[in-house]
Each structure stands twice: as C-alpha cells, then as structure tokens.
Amino acid sequence: MKRILLACGTAVATSTVVTNRLMEAMKKRGLEGKFTTSQCKIAEILSKVSNFDILVSNAKAPAGITIPVINGLPLLTGIGAEKVWDEIAELIRKE
C-alpha cells in the first residue's frame, strides 16, 4: 500500500480539497484501497516525508526529498489535472 503525503500552506483548505479529489480520481482508476493519505503544512514536509512514498505539494517543496514529488497545483485549478492524476496512479501501481 502506498502512502501519500499532501502538503499545503496550512494543512487545512487546499490539501483537503486535493485529498478529496485524489480519492475520487483514484477510485475511477480502480485504485481505491491501494493507498493512504495524510496532510501536512509545507513547513512540516522534511520532518514527515520519510514515512511516505509520494509527496503531492501545492507549493514548492524543499530540496533534498528522495521520493517522487508531484506538483498539486493542477489538481486545484483543473488545468492539466488528468495528466497529474495519471502520474499519481502510475506511482501507486508501481511496486
């Protein structure tokens, strides 16, 4: 099971929106139950990221992160979102 960390400025508003959209998008791709999510503030990324497989960030992530980092901005705006959902789905499917 993949662990996805979703980060935004306050770990409340935009990461919650992206989390809900992520659940829906992955359900459509048959990946429901194949991942877990957690939310954090941008400032908390470095202290939390080692426990996760994928980072989806709505702002620039700090340097030095060794897991895949996904730009979450398209997931808020909808512009280019399908491509990003496909990228996340591919990472979830990867063993």
Characterization of the model:
By secondary structure, the protein is α/β, with parallel strands linked by helices. The protein has a single domain, classed as Rossmann fold (3-Layer(aba) Sandwich). 40% of the residues lie in helices and 22% in strands. The protein has four helices and four strands; from the N terminus they run βαβαββαα. It has helices at 13-28, 45-48, 73-77, 81-93, and strands at 2-8, 35-41, 54-57, 69-71. The longest helix is centred in the first third of the chain and has 16 residues, at 13-28. It is globular, with a radius of gyration of 12 Å.
Low-confidence stretches: none
CATH topology: Rossmann fold
Strand order of the largest sheet: 2-1-3-4
Specify the overall morphology. Answer: globular
Structural class of the secondary elements?
alpha/beta
